[in-house]
């Protein structure tokens, strides 16, 4: 079928992009080879779990391998910076997290190696509750009991997170601030090492995204005290919310989505964004995410996501969490 130049330029995905530039970028053939999905945290954490579910479904839809590559460090900044500086050709994308995508801009300040404008939003993939839990050796069975125990044992408890600057770190700071308690923050290089230390009892309290902790909670290796969402999660229905436990100010929902280098051709952003939107609406994807406590994007009326909607979402989250960091006094030290 012959397509006129006028018809091509009238297509929304190509509007504003000269035909020669469109051909030179190779965007019209994307993806023509494997795509790397960089996860800025260690394997087995929620970012990694969600990225692997997404990569599997994108591979099926776009007929090219989507391979997950873990580049951990600095609360997600190492991996995010790597993608921000990568070739903007659509073959290196980022599974962004709330930490390196919103919180760290205020937390790290002038030490941030990249800025929001260095990355382009493609699509929100999933939102998840955070969960507060303790080692089984600690004699508390509710968040209220933890607060009372911490007040009676001031400065003797440690609280672990998957890294400085993560929503888990800031949730812990919110907990301390709202409850008026002292605990020493212990950052790890991912959820896996942190969970192992709390299970072993060397760290008494932990905060994690529900998907990476839920297996340990269901099996009784850890004791869940509260989820940080406004309502209980069906994945852990017996676990109360922080509001139910008397701390409504401790509310935090983590999120994960795809970003690309800022100069990635817009047609690639739109095509990948459309594929992500289709994936998150699949019943299979929704069921797999829900089983581990994940909530779908719901940025559009039909429950999906778009690059534009994700951009507005990230801007709002950056402003919101910037204020939380300032109020809590959280630092990366």
UniProtKB/TrEMBL annotation:
Matches recorded under CDD domains: PBP2_Bug27
Keyword terms of this UniProt record: Signal
InterPro entries: BUG, Bug_dom1
Keyword Signal annotated: yes
Record's signal peptide: 1-23
Gene3D superfamilies in alphabetical order: Bordetella uptake gene, domain 1, Periplasmic binding protein-like II
PANTHER family reported for this sequence: BLR1237 PROTEIN, TRICARBOXYLATE-BINDING PROTEIN
Protein family: Belongs to the UPF0065 (bug) family.
Name of the protein this chain belongs to: Bug family tripartite tricarboxylate transporter substrate binding protein
Record organism: Muricoccus vinaceus
